[in-house]
Amino acid sequence: MKIGFLADTHGNLKWTMEALDYLKDCDKILHLGDVLAHGPRNALTEEYNPKVLAEILKARDNIYYVKGNCDADVDQMVMDKDISQSQRLLSWGNLKIFASHGYLESENTRFYKALELGANVLVTGHSHIKVLEKTKDLVVLNPGSTTLPKDGTKSIALYENNSFKLINLETKEIIKELSLD
User: What's the pTM value of the predicted model, to 2 decimals?
Assistant: First the structure.
């Protein structure tokens, strides 16, 4: 199974399309929140076009969403997708994924909740900073932001062949890889 991860697209059409193009062969894609709205702390990007992006995302049936702090009920209405859950537990292949945008609770709380739920992967967004590490048999992944990275690199993540990869969205190079073998 091939799974894509992206977060914090904030209505940016160009870079969300770059991410979706890179992840086009994925069986499933998990968007970790802040889908359409730029949010009051973020400047509008040149490529900001939430109306067109909503139509594109509406047509996709393999994207699953977690609600971010900038996501609103109207986003769900225009996309006709369920983006109402701030946390999700998903079982895909050999992965049991606990997903949370990451603004309602502390990192520590999320970590222990994931373990308590029997997850082997914790994925978050919100910080716009990428993370890929394994602690106590739990893979912790934040794909970073496709549009407004706070660590300087637009990024996404990919799971395939029992391995997670953080990908530089601009160069398509692997930033970091973590094998489950």
Answer: 0.96
